[in-house]
Every structure is written in C-alpha cells, then in structure tokens.
Design brief:
The protein is an alpha/beta fold and 887 residues long. It has 28 helices and 30 strands.
Length: 887
Amino acid sequence: MAEIVFTAVINKAIDISSNALFNEVSSDSSLRENIHWIETEMRRMRSYLADAEANQISSHGGANLINDIQELAQDVENVLDTYLCEIASHREGEWGLQCLKEAARIFSCHGHTAHKLVARVEEIKRKVADIDRARVTYNITDSSSNNKDEIFSTSDQRRSFLHVDESEIIGLEKDCKELETKLLDTNSESDVISIIGMGGLGKTTLAKRVYKQVKCHFDCSALVSVFQETRSKEVLLELAKQVGLGEDKMEQNINLRTFLKEKRYLIFLDDVWSIDIWDALSPNFPIFDNSKNGSRIIITSRNNDIGRYIGGDRSIHDLQPLKPEDSWKLFIKVLLRASKDNKSGIPTNLEGIGRELMKRCGGVPLAIVLTASLLRAKEKSEHDWNRVLKNMHQNHEQDLDQCSKILRLSYEDLPVSLRPCFLYFALFPEDYEIPVFDLINMWAAEKFITRREDCEIEEVGEFCLNDLVARNLIQVSKRRYDGKIKTCRIHNVLHDLCIKVAKGKKFFHSLNDIVGTTSSSCCVEGPRRLAVHQRDADKYLSCHLETPKIYALLSFEPIKVPKNQKVKNIFQNVGFLRVLNLEILASPDKCGWSVIGPIGKLIHLSYLRLRGFSDTCLPSSISNLKYLLTLDVRGCDSIRLPTCIWKMEQLRHLQIGALSLFVRSCVGYWGFEESNIVTKHYPIEVNLPNIQTLETMDVCYWNPEWLCKVGPNIRRLAVSGASKETINVLNNQNNAIFEKLENLRLSNDTTHDISSEIFTLSGCPNLLKVHLDVFFSPSMLPSFEHFPPNLIKLTLLKNRLTEDPLQTLNKLPKLKILKLDFDCYIGKTMDCDGDFCQLEVLRIRGLDNLEELMMDGVGMPRLRKVMIDRCEQLKSIPESLQNLRTT
C-alpha cells in the first residue's frame, strides 16, 4: 500500500505548502523546509518503490525492506494527518483576525505543534537513511526503465478509451447453437441448463447472448445475478418484477409460483455460488409442473456439484477453454481494437511471443483480453513483449492459477497513481452496480485524484475510470445520454483479486474480517477503510471496536437500530475519516441525532452521504468541515438543514431531498420549532463559488434569486416547485452562472403554472439534458427555438399538454433520447413523422388517453429503440415502430 499512501502524502504536502494561511504565518523557515522535504522525498521513494515492486525478489531481506517502506509511508501520513488535526482543532469561529493570530501561535517556531512536527520529520529522515542503507545491503537495484509514476504520461494520452461492454463471442458459436436448441426444444427433458466452468471462461457472456436470442419465444423472462452475499428475498423480488408480477397482484396473494404456473417462462440465474441459495429459491419455480410447456431455467456456476444438484448430469454444459486459434483471433481483435494497424496485423517478429503469451493464458477469454489490453498500452517491440512474458514466468505467488497471475500482472502494470482507484472497487459488494458520480467523488475525497491544470477534478476522475475501462479491468454497465459512463462494475474474478490485493496491502477490511478475529471491545489500529456489507450490517452499531486510523466507512446495507437501544458514538476516535456513506434504519426516537450529532468533529470529512436519517437535523457544526466537497442527504426524509450550508464555499456537490427544510440553526436533538424554519423571504448569505451539483431545491422554502449568487461552475441543477420567478432567473441572459449548466430538472404542481410564451432555455449552450415535470399555460410546449440548442435528452412528465408535443420536438436538431411519460400529453393522437433527424430512443409510457400513433415511415431515420408501455387505449402501433419495440 506504500505507493498509494505516498501519493496521498504528496498531495497533502502540496495542500499544506500552498495554503495561504500557512505561508503567511509560518515564520520558521525550517517548518517550510520540512514540508517541502516530505513532498520531494516521498516522490523519490514512491518511484523507487514502484521499481522495487516491479523487481520483487524472493529473499526475506527484500521483503522486509518493502515492509519497512510501507510502514514508513503510514508513519508519514499519520504525522501529516495529526498535524492537520491539531491545526484544525484551533479553528474556532470564522477565518478572521482572531483565527490568524491563533494560527500564528501554532505555526511559530516556539509553537508546540510546529515543534512536534519538526521533531517527527527528523525521525522520518533517520528512518529514510536506515532504509537506504538496507537497500544497499540487499542490493535491490533499479533495473526498470518503465516510468509508471504518472497516469497522464505520453503513452496514456495516446490510449484510446473505446470499450466493448460485452466481449465479442469468438469460439463459442457451437456452444450458442447447442444451448439455443436445448432451450427451444419443447420435447427436451432438460428443464435446467447449468453452464459450468472456471472464472473468466465467459459463462455469463455466453448465457446472456443465448438468453437474449431466445427470450422472445417465452411468455415471460428474467435475468438476475445471484452473488455470494445475496439474499433469496431480494432475488425473488427482482424475479417477480421482471416477469411481470406487480405489487398489485402480490397484494391479491398471488405468489411467484402461482403466477409462473400458467406461463412458459425463462429464468436466468447468473453466478450461483451455493446449494443453499438454490434451496431457498426453487420452491418458487414450478419446474416439473411446467416442463411440458417448455419452461426453462439457466444457471451459471463455477462449481460442477452445484450444477448437478440443481439439474442433474443431463443439465451440465461444461464450458471449455478456447482452442489455440480462437484464442489467437480474440487476442488480435482486442490488441488491434481502434488501432491504425487493425488491417495489417502485428509485426511478424512479435507473433511467436504473442502465441507463447496465449499458451500462458490457457484459453481463458478474460486472461486473453487483459493480456491484449496490457500490451496495447505498450510499444510493439520485442523488448516490451518479452518483458510481459518474463513477468508471467516469474510471478512469485505460487498459489495463484495462471489466470490469476495474469490478472495480477494487469494490476502491477497500472500507473502508481491509478492503483488506489482500482483497489477502491474492493470495498463494494460483489456484482454491485457502482454509480460513477459517487465513485469519483470518493476518489476525490481520498485525494487519489486532484485537479490538474485546466481539468476539473471530476474530469480527472473520468479520465482515470476510462483508463481502467480501456485496460478491461472495469466493465461499463450503463452510459449516460452524452456517452459518458453512468454506472460500472468489476468482473467477479477481478473482484476476488482486487480484494486479495487490497487486504494484503491493508488498504481495506470488511467489518466481518475484524469482528471475526478480535474481541467485541478493542482498538484495531490496522484498518484504513471499512466496508459494512449485508451479513454484518446489524453488528456495526452494537460492537465496540475502535478504529482510530480509519479513512473511509461505507455501508451497503441499512444498519438497524432496535428501539431504545443505546447507540454507540461511531464518530469517536475517527478523526481522520474522509469518506462516510451511511444508511440507518432507526425509529423516530432521536437515534438519528445520536448518530450524526457529533459529525462536526470529523474535520477531515470530504464525502458525506446519509440515508434513512428521517425526521432529524443535520447539526450546525457541519460548518466546521472545511474540506467537505460532497454532501448527499437525498435519502433522508424531512431532514432539516442549517443555513450555514449555503456558506460552505468549498462544497462542489449539494444534494438534498425535495422535502428537506432549512432552519436557522440545528442544535440539540431536534431544533424543530416552527419559528426556526427558514422561508423564501429570509435573507441568506449564499457563497458557493465551487458548486457543480445543486439538487433538489424547493422554492416553497427558498428564494429563486439565490440562484444568482451561486458560482459560475454549476453543471447539474434540480428545482422543485418551479415558478415564474424561477424561469425569470433562468431566462436572464446576463446571468453567467448557467453557461456551464449541463443537466436541468424542473418540477412543480398545479398551483404553479409557467407561461409557455416566456419559457426559454435557448441561452444555455451546454445544456444537454432537461427533465420537465411542470404545467404550462396554455397547455402547449414552448416553441422549439426556446429549447437549448444542443439538447440531447428530454423527458416530459405530467405536463397535461393538449397539443401534440411531437410537432414541436421534431424540429430539435440534436435530440437523441425522448421520453414522454405519465400524463405529459392528454390528447388522443400523436404524429411521429417529421424530422427527428438524430432521434435514437423513444419511450411513450402512461399516456392514458392515447388511441393512435401515426407514422408513414419518413421520420425518425436513426431510431433504434422504442418502448411503449401502459397506454391502455392505444389500438395499434405502426409497423416501423413495432419492429424496434423492446420491453
């Protein structure tokens, strides 16, 4: 973990030395010199460590040397964090003259804190000297010429970030045909098909391909991932949702088994890990009752015994590794993807090395893809390719199979600054779909990424993620309207490796790891990041573990707080905490406040996401969090927020629920007095120069004019209760704050209508996505000229328009995605003809009065996906739309 910690230390040293207050009051030149020494020496040691690890030697002396470096990195980080904590502990009140005088006392050569820092740095210097002597003694030389220190290197800038979300099927055509035949043969005795094989063989890819091909032949279908920590109830709810068993039918006591009994169904359970989960699920499947009508179940598993238990020997489809020629075809396809040499192939002098690499991959598609991705980032030279081959031979972890060795090599090839970003995926549960917005903000909070030149920190995060995707270490789950990644996940095999590496480097622990190996009440020094998953969520608030050096706490399951149970102060002795993602299920008996009341003491906190804290207050002491970049309380119903939030100038992302209220102050358990609530007429000082995300603001409780005081960097804005005044602010051409706006969501109710004549967003050139849940007067859309000129995605909801909206929207030149949702239009006919020259996706849902869709085949030339649902009066769908329709 040392190279990761070094990166964090370097960023902290830069932050300290660039701090205006530090430079103004640090009269002791030795203090400044020591901070500068830390920065430069840590850079050197980080580069040295990268070379040392690249040339891992099997001697005990070399291993001990690397352990010494890791301990040194942690010592340096603890020194800086402690130093920053002591400085922050003196920051009481605003940054005024009194604070400057106090800071001057701290920083002065006679100040206790400065003296301690200088003394600790001298200790570190002695340790560095000892390590250097050990390096000479054990003769670890720097033989690597590959500079992997910076992600923004020349080779990385040349990298193409194209990515195929599902690997191309090569060598599996026969398997596809065989499985399709079995699934569609109503006379077949195989009710269950079990696709079995080792991790990385392509079981899921194959099964998904077959599932998509044949599901149209069944009455209903469902695809659910069954990972290690899943619960049968969650799987059943997802299955019921996908096959069409809605909540209304469940309320009529129609269970899944009864519903499926009358259907020819296809169920795909991906990655079944245990017999127990099947035993919990199987009573809900009328397997043998429906075998004659052709109902089928597909499972994938790494374990042959599970497949035999579920479907018997006849169900087994044992997926084999690729043949040598198919391995070579896949290797070449990935290696030359988006390359200028994709037609000419690879140089003849590299073919022998390439084929030897393929032998090492053993026909495992995941290993082949990762090897090709690794080589794609290197020069096409015998030296570089032979070096990769040599590293495959010399992997020192003898307990790893060949595939795992290749995966490990892909990790070691990452730039040092990108490794912690990859290891962060270990904190998430298996098969978890990770929102990229949250992931990047967590990276930023941990200082894994920092702003660079003209790139905002979020853009740097996107660059890092794209690099991981291009290396095929991370998979894209969903993309946004503008093509950027919305959600991502990590392959199960890579997730296992990620966890192993992360735990080996003491990068993170799960709560279960700690609880299972320690007493119920103790201090655990090691953990830096703690993940609370499903099985151990309920233990957390009841255990009395102290983790004083923890940087991140992420819970992925609501933590239940039984009524009247005393809740421990989870923020005691966690002064270094930077990332907190916490969900709680608490009764309204002040449990919420007892948990988050002391949150103002977490002075290093940079990312805060709370869910489930209903009917409680966020304390006014949150203003003490001078490093807080992300505040997300959307999942907290009726939470009350102090107005001091509007003056937290470092905030970049503020996300609150539409039912949230602002109060003058939140002190004590509730602070719920009605007189304390702020209305739109209350004067609030707004100072958010760095804000990029602001959602959801309810204008019933705040003044639209406050938007004019928001900084010029806002990119995402959501407004509830939008009124004429809101539109006037948005329409103000002199208001430069909306020049960067990319995503806008407006909603209101029948008490607020907006004149379609004055509504205009034409002055927002970067606005690409708009969601309008508003009432227009008269009941028609504004003219197409009033929409953003570069609009890509538009959603209309509950507008109750009387005029066909398509007659206006078909003139938008760049519109690609159009969603017409519940009651946005109350007319009977819609004409789909017209330009729509760029439209690719059309969704029509919940238009109760719609009877006829007209289309003569001229319009929508690029349309590729159509979704029409819950339009009960619709008599027919044009053939050209029907052919593109999906469920």
